[in-house]
């Protein structure tokens, strides 16, 4: 398959960005959990800026959760495409990918509470 030119080609890079953005947009349209996570990230990032708290840990956690949800969606689609029949290994793969999102979400919550909790408490009292 022709790669469309040099790996350093700006045109090729923009084309790749377009494909990636199409994946994000499809996931946003088709996955309710991703929409919830996007708006939770927007809220967390807005609160971080409002409270003048450290942005990096919150942004990193948001990116991690959203990225894992995208990977989870891709894995589920690939497993569904590979076999229409139910199979214990397919279920294990899907459950493990969903578990990765759950673990990252729990970690993000802990980071959010530790980074934003004190700043929010100070503002409220």
TrEMBL record:
> What lineage, starting at the top, does this entry show?
Bacteria, Thermotogati, Deinococcota, Deinococci, Deinococcales
Instruction: One Pfam family, please name it.
Output: DAGK_prokar
Location within or outside the cell: Cell membrane
Q: Which organism is it from?
A: Deinococcus reticulitermitis
Give the range the annotation lists for the signal sequence.
none
**What's the name of the protein?**
Diacylglycerol kinase (ATP)
Residue ranges crossing the lipid bilayer per the database entry: 55-75, 96-121
Sample GO molecular function, one term = kinase activity
- Name the needed cofactors: Mg(2+)
The residues listed in the UniProt record as binding ATP, with positions renumbered to this chain, are 12, 76, 85-87, 94-95
Q: Which UniProt keywords apply?
A: ATP-binding, Cell membrane, Kinase, Lipid biosynthesis, Lipid metabolism, Magnesium, Membrane, Metal-binding, Nucleotide-binding, Phospholipid biosynthesis, Phospholipid metabolism, Transferase, Transmembrane, Transmembrane helix
Family assignment from sequence similarity: Belongs to the bacterial diacylglycerol kinase family.
- Which PROSITE patterns does its entry note? DAGK_PROKAR
Identify the InterPro entries for this entry: DAGK, DAGK_sf, UDPK
Q: What cellular component GO annotations does this protein have?
A: plasma membrane
Q: What GO terms in the biological process aspect are recorded for it? A: phospholipid biosynthetic process
Query: Active site annotated at which positions?
Result: 69
| Protein residues bound to a divalent metal cation | 76
């Amino acid at each position: 398959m022709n790669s469309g030119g040099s790996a350093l080609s700006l045109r090729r890079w923009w084309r790749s960005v377009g494909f990636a953005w199409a994946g994000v947009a499809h996931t946003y349209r088709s996955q309710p959990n991703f929409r919830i996570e996007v708006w939770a990230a927007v809220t967390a990032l807005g609160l971080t800026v409002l409270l003048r708290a450290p942005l990096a840990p919150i942004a990193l956690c948001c990116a991690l959760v959203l990225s894992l949800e995208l990977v989870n969606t891709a894995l589920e689609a690939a497993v569904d495409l590979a076999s229409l029949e139910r199979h214990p290994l397919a279920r294990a793969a899907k459950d493990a990918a969903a578990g990765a999102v759950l673990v990252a979400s729990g970690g993000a919550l802990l980071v959010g509470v530790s980074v934003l909790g004190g700043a929010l408490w100070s503002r409220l009292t």
